[in-house]
């Protein structure tokens, strides 16, 4: 297993996402079981947000981690419209209740909104003082946003990254590495769309007796300081995602991916979902 130092904690390079969980009551048991299976297999970082199913995903996570909170590194995100001096503490309180915990390990601003960054940061810092969160970070921040934020206390930036979305490699990722700011890569499987049927990923997968999804995860986490957070409900997917931590791509594999999905040669606007 490979690890990244995130907010002072050693976390595995592959975690678990939760977008679309908590939407259908009929699927809740399977979602809880998938997250628990993931924790058992070492996928101990769980990423959620108040936005997902309007709190429903946090409730699924709460159920999955009940009685084993200490085995999990918990990440949640606040809506930008709640990221004010008064709104942030109440949003956090609601999240804590749904998650059934007293403290969120890493609390992120989901994307930039209308509230001044200094006000959000001040509110995050107060939550740390009160023991409601351990650290704070951001999501969907491009390089200029991070430079404007200019705050070494920021513990991560969570952004879209997979072989078909390599824009961050031009400037954001190298800068983040230089600042020792870990990157959390969301949609590392491009939401299981066309990417997973790409013949080049299929060919590489066949060479390693792996799957295209595992190749995508190994590729996303190939460098320093990147954590991938695939979401999986199917037990087979959870197993494959955990096993992807052992897949190491060769130079030839990486070159083949570069040929199929060119690295950026100029600045691209940060892609978002
Ligand atoms: N900060 C942000 O703005 C932001 C935006 C988007 C996402 N996120 C976070 O990032 C997480 C991941 O992104 P995402 O959920 O949008 O997309 P994703 O993880 O790229 O893809 C999820 C899809 O891939 C399937 N899948 C999982 N493992 C697989 C495997 N080994 N083989 C084949 N298919 C597999 C899942 O199916 P099953 O579920 O059926 O197993 C699901 O349909 C989210 O859940 C969320 O926590 C953050």
UniProtKB/TrEMBL annotation:
Transmembrane segments: none
Sequence ranges assigned to domain NADP-dependent oxidoreductase in this UniProt record: 14-258
Pfam family, one: Aldo_ket_red
PANTHER family noted in UniProt: ALDEHYDE REDUCTASE, OXIDOREDUCTASE, ALDO/KETO REDUCTASE FAMILY PROTEIN
Name of this protein: Aldo/keto reductase
């Amino acid at each position: 297993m490979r690890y990244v130092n995130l907010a002072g904690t050693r976390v595995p390079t592959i975690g678990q996402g939760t977008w679309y969980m908590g939407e259908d009551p009929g699927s809740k048991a399977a979602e809880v079981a998938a997250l628990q299976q993931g924790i058992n297999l070492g996928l101990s970082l769980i990423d959620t947000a108040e936005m997902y199913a309007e709190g429903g995903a946090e409730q699924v996570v709460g159920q999955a981690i009940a009685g084993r909170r200490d085995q999990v590194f918990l990440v949640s995100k606040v809506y930008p419209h709640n990221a004010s001096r008064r709104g942030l503490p109440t949003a956090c309180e609601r999240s804590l209740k749904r998650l059934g915990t007293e403290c969120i390990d890493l609390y992120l601003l989901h994307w930039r909104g209308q509230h001044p960054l200094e006000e959000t940061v001040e509110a995050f810092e107060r939550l740390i003082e009160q023991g409601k969160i351990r650290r704070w970070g951001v999501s969907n921040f491009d390089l200029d946003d991070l430079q404007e934020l200019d705050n070494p206390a920021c513990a991560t930036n969570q952004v879209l990254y997979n072989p078909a979305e390599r824009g961050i490699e031009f400037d954001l990722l190298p800068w983040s590495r230089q600042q020792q700011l870990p990157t959390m890569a969301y949609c590392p499987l491009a939401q299981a769309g066309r990417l997973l049927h790409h013949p080049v990923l299929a060919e590489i997968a066949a060479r390693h007796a792996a799957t295209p999804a595992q190749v995508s995860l190994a590729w996303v986490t190939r460098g320093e300081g990147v954590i991938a957070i695939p979401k999986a409900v199917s037990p087979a997917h959870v197993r494959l995602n955990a096993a992807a931590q052992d897949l190491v791509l060769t130079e030839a594999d990486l070159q083949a991916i570069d040929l199929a999905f060119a690295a950026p040669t100029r600045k691209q606007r940060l892609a978002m979902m």
